[in-house]
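name: query_chain
kind: protein
chains: 1
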Amino acid sequence: MPRSLPTSVDETLALVADGNYIADRSLATTLFVSFRLNRPLFLEGEAGVGKTELAKVLAETLGRPLVRLQCYEGLDISAAVYEWNYARQMIEIRLAEAMGDRDRDSLAEDIFSKRFLITRPLLQAIEPTADGPPVLLIDELDRADEPFEAYLLELLGDYQITVPEIGTIKAAQPPIVLITSNRTREIHDALKRRCLYHWIDYPNAARELAILKARLPQASESLSREAVAFVQGLRRSDLFKLPGVAETIDWVAALNCLDKATLDAETADQTLGVLLKYQDDIVKIRGAETARLVALAQGGSAAPAS
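structure:
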C-alpha cells in the first residue's frame, strides 16, 4: 500500500530510518523540500556514500515502484526512453497488404500508435501505475555522454516526454526523481537548474556507527566501534580511492563472518581487499600502517551516536 509523503523534516528522517538509512538533517531537509516542490533531487558524492541506496529506500518505505536508469557511455533514447517495435510494425504492414483493407494514411497512423511503442525507464516513470507515481533513479549520470543531458531537460522541467510520431506524453502525477553523479565529469548547469542539489559526504564516526548498527545489528558493539575508527583513520590517508560507507558495511560483515568480536591487525591486513579496491592502496596500508590504525582504533574508537 503506497504511503503518503512526509509533512515535515522530522517525518522525512523517520521515513528513511524505517529503511535503515541514517540521513543527516541537511539531507532530510533537502529531500523534504524536493517532495513539497515536486523538484528532482541531484545527488553528488564519492562512490559508496549512499546516493543510490537512498532511492531504493524511498521506493521501499513509500511503497512505490523503483524505476532505475543505469547510465553508461553511449546511452541513447532507444535504451533510455522508447523505441518502436519494428518487428510487429512489419507484421502489421504485411497483414494490411495481404487483406487490402486499409489505405496508406490509416496504416501509418496505426503502426505509430502506443501499442507498437516499447517503453524504456524514462517513459515508464511518467506513465500511470496502480501503485502511484514511481521513484525514478537516474544513476551515475556522469557516465553518460553530455548530449544525453539535453534530452533530460524536458523531463526534469515539465515531467513530460515528446514522441514525434505521437506527441507529448505528460505525467498525471510527477514521479520522485533522484539523479546521482560520482563527479567523474561536471554536469551541465542547465540540468542542475532544474533540480535541487545535495552533496553526500562521508559520514562522521557517530553517524557511521549508527549506520552499522542499523544495517548489521548482529555485529558486536566493540567490532563496529573499532572498525568505524579504523575506517575513519583510513580516510585521512593519501589513497587513490577512499572507502565509502558501503565498503565499511561489507568489511564489518566479512569480519563478522570470520567470528571476530574485536579488530586485530592480522585479520585487518588479510581483509583489506574488502575496503580498498586498488592494489597500490592496499600495498601502501598493509603491514605497519594497518597495525598503527588498529592500535589507534582500539585506543580511541568511535564515539557513540547521539
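note: DSSP finds 16 helices and nine strands in the chain.
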